[in-house]
Design a protein that fits this description.
about 210 residues, mainly alpha, 2 strands
Length: about 210
């Protein structure tokens, strides 16, 4: 795992350095590298959207199971798993892209805080990229965009608690994370929101 993180951090550090030489801006380089990462994750996004569309079509059957086994949670969970398996659906598929991003996020943390990348560099004259945001603007934006992105991807009612838990956790973590890493997260969320809206047109979540 350590070797993978070293490889990710080294690769991201190289990409950022190349983009800094091209643009002359550390902040803009973080945004551009985020777009590159999100484009690489596009196949995963397609798979996630197809999975969400299939889950949405199963909602009537899930509601029937809820009515039939609502008082027996264990039986309801068993029947629900059987239904998902029958249709080849992974109920946690909507969380996968976010989980995949976590190693990349940690790699950005190492690049921005461990190697001295861009030490003292500012973005828009407000945020020192290697330090936490003293104005709390970025943590609020990270929580808000995480909520919007999660709301667009969560289709299983049993996961709706994550709509509030995850944004709050991300917002709290962002209070102490380097601003550059929070900018990466916000940019990634904004890209994901736009991409999801487009994917929903290609693979409608309703019949």
């Amino acid at each position: 795992m350590s070797a993978i993180m070293d490889w990710l951090a080294g690769g991201l550090g190289w990409i950022l350095n190349q983009l800094v030489q091209l643009t002359g801006s550390y902040g803009l380089s973080i945004i551009l590298s985020t777009v590159i990462v999100r484009l690489l994750l596009y196949p995963l996004m397609v798979s996630q959207t197809k999975n969400m569309a299939a889950m949405r079509k199963l909602q009537p059957e899930l509601e029937k199971l809820q009515q039939k086994y609502g008082n027996d949670k264990e039986k309801y969970q068993q029947k629900m798993v059987e239904l998902y398996k029958e249709h080849g659906i992974n109920p946690l598929g909507g969380c996968l892209p976010m989980l995949v991003q976590l190693p990349i996020l940690w790699a950005f943390f190492r690049v921005l805080s461990g190697s001295g990348f861009g030490e003292g560099a500012k973005f828009l004259g407000l945020w020192v990229l290697s330090q936490p945001d003293p104005y709390y603007i970025l943590p609020i934006l990270s929580a808000a965009t995480t909520y919007i992105q999660s709301r667009m991807t969560v289709t299983d009612t049993s996961q709706k608690a994550m709509l509030f838990v995850m944004p709050i956790m991300i917002g709290i973590f962002s209070l102490s994370f380097p601003s550059g890493m929070v900018i990466y997260w916000i940019t990634s969320n904004l890209f994901s929101i736009a991409q999801q809206a487009w994917m929903n047109r290609l693979y409608p979540l309703t019949d």
